[in-house]
Specification:
heterodimer; A: 266 residues; mainly alpha; MetI-like fold; B: 367 residues; Rossmann fold; OB fold (Dihydrolipoamide Acetyltransferase, E2P); 2 domains; five-stranded antiparallel β-sheet; transmembrane helix (chain A); cell membrane (chain A)
Chain lengths: 266, 367
């Protein structure tokens, strides 16, 4: 008789499978209908086509919106990762008062609804007379991405022996060189993971962009705009399918690199 | 004192972390080329003191001089010292060669000269041909040697070692002790070595500072610490020691004696005994200073005791005997070069005579 701790539990297994199905089936409809030869999203399917993808290819505003999202995503991921490295290093390497409260504050945007941040930023920016643009979208994304960057980088900094940096100082290197010769290479997997994760978050983000976009839409904003036109809907589905695929791929790569780095260190 | 005896000079150094005092007013000197150990239980402040020598902690009070230079304002990366960390801190993203050459960047050497120096170090630590290995392909002993090489290649004035043998198993440890001692003689650099292992400290060191509660209890040579400890704390930290309370008995100015619990009256030279008649003293005797015999030995000092337990330890045996007038049993260590009464399994309660010579008695400060 094996103990209940190790015994397989049929009911739990079934629950887990059902859970995953309920979670992902709606998402799977998107790529499914993007190949459907009809502008109406309804069963039965009307036959397989790639024409929506072809149509997508020729539409100029799609490419503009995509490029806008990529630009914002790149800048936001780099800035939030740099800030994340600084924060994670400060949190793990210095003795300071109120560290716990500080970490909570940094992580707060994870639980504060984006709509509140969005409205707050919109009010603030319009008071200050700052025109809405991709810069304001980036600012909003930065707030959302920073806790993800810190959460990704903190375990890397916690995981490495502080005497590594002391050894470098002891061997004659100042803080700057110690960072580039020891700290940076050792947290590199965390940095890559953080860049990929924050880029993905920025790329997909809608609420902040909804409040803070000026005349240049990001890709999610563009998709939102197209939903009003039923004729455009299938190509929106095609685009959504592509975005889904790229996002999944990026998150998987980020996770994989992060884990691989941790294993190497041990 | 010559300047080379004060190569490292620690003057009235204290270190506080908030309300906790890690180091309390320590002053001592370490000579050039010395193998000097800081010995104590964990939390005694030995590592804090080492980290202050390295520059990772600043003294709250006092000053440390190395080669006559005050160190207060010198950051770790400008100090003429290098350290071997307890965890070795081998950089995992670099191979052995780049680890050893890490500190050479600022010396702007030709790459051939640098490679030559690394090869010399690899020979010195007996790991030739290991240059391309990655850190995670090395054993504990090899990492320890790489950490040594990485520090020694910079020719520091002082090498600091923080329990470098702590992570190794017993056999490798003993081998590394011998190698470390030989290496220190070869390079002639001052070593400051932190350990909690008294045997290791005795084997390796020219001198040892025994530390406890942030203070230095005694600084002496290994033999000095073992044979003439000044306090009970030092005596019991290093090896096994039997302690006896006693009282001074004086009969005029020429003859003096100690009336000790369980041992009776022990005559002492007056020079050794400066205290007045009736003063309490504490004396100590190492287990191996006693001799055991089945019959009362002729002449000399002896008392009869009864065997409580005996432990056979290979080349010697440890006996515990109870003697009248003393509560705790007396530990006696005897070599097994000849069998005591023809066998090592003496029955409990066996009567045995303990004898000793007055010269082997250690007078302790009452603490």
């Amino acid at each position: 008789m094996s103990s209940y701790i190790k015994r397989p539990n049929r009911a739990l297994q079934l629950y887990a499978v059902l859970f995953l199905i309920v979670l992902y089936v709606p998402v799977l409809f998107i790529p499914l209908f993007s190949f459907n030869d009809s502008i109406y999203v309804r069963f039965p399917l009307q036959g397989v086509t790639l024409k929506w993808y072809g149509e997508l290819w020729t539409r100029e505003p799609v490419w503009n919106a995509l490029w806008n999202s990529v630009k914002v995503g790149l800048v936001v991921s780099v800035i939030s990762t740099v800030l994340g490295v600084m924060a994670a290093r400060a949190i793990t390497r210095t003795r300071m008062r109120g560290k716990g409260a500080l970490v909570t504050f940094i992580m707060m945007p994870l639980v504060i609804p984006g709509i509140i941040f969005g409205v707050a930023l919109l009010v603030l920016l319009s008071r200050l007379g700052v025109p809405l643009s991709l810069y304001t979208v980036g600012l909003g994304h930065l707030i959302i991405c920073l806790p993800f960057a810190v959460a990704t980088l903190l375990p890397r900094f916690e995981g490495f022996d502080p005497s590594m940096e002391e050894a470098s100082a002891d061997l004659g290197e100042n803080g700057w060189w110690t960072f580039w010769r020891v700290t940076f290479p050792m947290v590199m997997p965390g940095i890559v993971a953080s860049l990929l994760l924050t880029f993905t978050i920025s790329f997909d983000e809608f609420i902040m962009a909804f409040f803070l976009t000026g005349t240049d839409p990001t890709l999610p904003m563009y998709i939102w705009g197209q939903l009003r036109f039923p004729k455009e809907f299938p190509s929106v589905l095609a685009m959504a399918a592509l975005i889904l695929f790229v996002s999944f791929a990026l998150v998987f790569v980020a996770q994989w690199i992060g884990r691989k780095g941790l294993e190497e260190q041990e | 004192m010559t300047p080379s005896d004060r190569f490292i000079s620690i003057r009235s150094v204290s270190k506080r972390f908030g309300a906790f005092t890690a180091i309390e007013d320590i002053s001592m000197d370490i000579g050039q080329g010395e193998f000097f150990s800081l010995l104590g239980a964990s939390g005694c402040g030995k590592t804090t003191l080492l980290r202050m020598l390295a520059g990772f902690e600043a003294p709250s009070k006092g000053e440390i001089f190395i080669d006559d230079q005050p160190m207060s304002d010198v950051p770790p990366h400008h100090r003429p010292v290098n350290m071997v960390f307890q965890s070795y801190a081998i950089f995992p993203h670099l191979n052995v060669r780049d680890n050893i050459a890490y500190g050479l960047r600022k010396q702007k050497l030709a790459s051939t000269r640098r490679a030559e120096m690394v090869e010399e170090m690899l020979d010195l630590i007996k790991l030739p041909g290991y240059g391309n290995r990655k850190a995670n392909e090395l054993s504990g002993g090899q990492r320890q040697r790489i950490a040594l090489a990485r520090a020694l290649i910079l020719r520091p004035k002082v090498l600091l070692l923080d329990e470098p043998l702590g992570a190794l198993d017993k056999q490798l440890r003993e081998q590394m002790q011998l190698e470390l001692r030989a290496l220190q003689r070869q390079v002639g650099i001052t070593f400051v070595f932190v350990t909690h292992d008294q045997e290791e400290a005795l084997t390796l060191s020219d001198r040892i500072a025994v530390m406890s509660g942030g203070k230095v209890l005694q600084v002496d040579t290994p033999a000095g610490l073992y044979e003439t400890p000044r306090t009970r704390a030092v005596a019991s930290f290093i090896g096994t020691m039997n302690f006896f309370r006693g009282t001074v008995r004086r009969n005029g100015s020429v003859m003096a004696a100690i009336e000790a619990e369980g041992l009776g009256t022990i005559p002492m030279a007056t020079a050794q005994l400066t205290k007045p008649d009736g003063a309490p003293v504490q004396i100590a005797l190492r287990p191996e200073k006693f001799s055991l015999s089945p019959k009362r030995p002729e002449g000399g000092l002896a008392v009869e005791g009864r065997l409580r337990t005996a432990a056979y330890m290979g080349e010697r045996s440890q006996y515990y005997l109870s003697i009248p007038g003393k509560a705790e049993p007396v530990a006696v260590s005897a070599p097994n070069s000849h069998r005591l009464m023809g066998g090592h399994d003496l029955p409990e309660g066996q009567a045995l005579w303990l004898s000793w010579s007055p010269e082997s008695i250690v007078m302790l400060d009452i603490d």
